[in-house]
Structure prediction request, 196 residues.
Amino acid sequence: MIDLIKQESLTNSKKILIIGVFHGDEPQGEYFINTYLEKSKEIGKNSLYFIPRLNSTNTRKNKNGVDLNRNFPTKNWILAENNDYFGGFSANSEEETKFLVDLLEKNDFSAIITIHAPYKTVNYDGPAEKLAQEISKIIGYPTSDDIGYMTPGSFGTYCGKERSIPTITIEIDEEEDINLLNQKFHKLFDYLKNDY
Prediction:
């Protein structure tokens, strides 16, 4: 079961979706989200929707051996060889993918943030350059609209490029102190809640 935790505003100005663990071997996002939810109870200008852990495994792929970040029903989805980036035997085949596709159908998100590792960049898809620059100031990483390799069936393509939702993939530096990163992400979540 996938947990969706809402911190809803009174005005519902904007809805922002934040996903912690797309790949099970990149667990830091769940920690950042859970520690934030423990301390931050106040209502902000915007509503934040948190998914601390999308992928229930401790490996890159889900329990069916599918890379969730290659399983979205994009125009560029392909049946790839069965390696670390295997996108399944068909697009949108996985429970986690279907959950997100349904969530996107039912909500008008103003922005989406996912937390990955290890490239130390604020990668953006769709109309998200300005938001990426603001996040870059908080996190201290450079921005990029190209991760440097093909990503057929990716969440960024599905949301940012094909649905025009500003979509940010924050690739954290795994060597950076986790407590310092946690402080940066709490500051980011406050920015999204109150100032975005």
In short: Residues 178-194 form the longest helix (17 residues). The helical segments are 28-39, 95-106, 129-139, 155-161, 178-194. Strands lie at 5-7, 15-19, 47-51, 111-116, 121-125, 143-144, 167-171. The chain is about 30% helix and 15% strand.
